[in-house]
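Example record

The entry below shows one chain as it appears in the dataset: sequence first, then structure tokens.
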Amino acid sequence: MDIAALRDARPGELYGAADAYDRLHTAFQEHTSNWKRGTADRVHQSQWTGEAATGATASIDGTTGKLQAAGIELGLIGAVLRDGAEAFELARAKLLQALADARAKDLGVNDRGDVGWEPLDPRSRHDPDAAGYERTQKAAAQDIGDRITLALREAAEADRTTAERLRRCTGNATSQAGLDLATAGGDSAAAVLGGRDPLYTKGLPPDGATPTQVNAWWRGLTADEQQRLITAHPEQLGNRDGLPAAVRDQANRKVLDDAFDRLGAKSPRTGTRRSATSGPAPSSCASSRTTPSPPTRAPTTRGTTCWATGTRARAAPCSPSATRTAPPTSRSTSPA
């Protein structure tokens, strides 16, 4: 995963694919129900006996089991895509916010992730404020570099994990292992257990984040991403200091309504009876293949020398890059 791939990605398109799989799953479930009512149940209720009846009943029950298993497997794919899209979107938001902060601080970022700043004019090097400027820019560059590294790491993990889950689903389909109820049931159980720590949680502010950090993270999300979190994961927002009061209020109201959903009870807030519903959990069963958006026009670059810090110090030229967010730099920090 590199800066250009994450910056230009369009993970939101995965939600459309997830919705399409959910619709396919619903249609398949209806097909299975029709088969059971129209064929399996009628045979069982026919009082047909004998050797032929025993063989036919066993065959029909086997088909019913395969249909039910396939339905379970199919129902997991939408959740896999949705979880991966959420994680990728949050990682991308972190990257875009880091690049925006770099621009605001007159820092440059190249396609390798080196972060640096414009050198002082030679006549200004003996200015009393010169040393302070260098220290400030170096600290800011290190912070931006660390944030870029974290965003790329989270995006790579989301991509790798989603791909592994989808490969499992595909493997079960091609090998027909997914037509076995025991296998499908195991995948479903793994999905529920895996749902305790879904991918998207890695894109949330860490425990111990300050209200200022939480607020900056929230402002770095698009309006669609914000609303999606409120709708899908309100329990992650209602108790976070740093979020706008209106957001926390909306999230807490959603948590309350969802609780009544699960109970099938009447909501005291809305006065309406709500049916118990639940969606599939992320599966253990993708590559987030995306279409790059047109890159933004970047300033031209000039050859300068960078100090790259990391496991080893090295001197290197700051190469031109479409990902540069500020003028070329004289000293830089590189993500690990």
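Notes for this example: The first strand starts at residue 107 and ends at 109. The chain has two domains: 3-107+137-198+281-300, 203-276.
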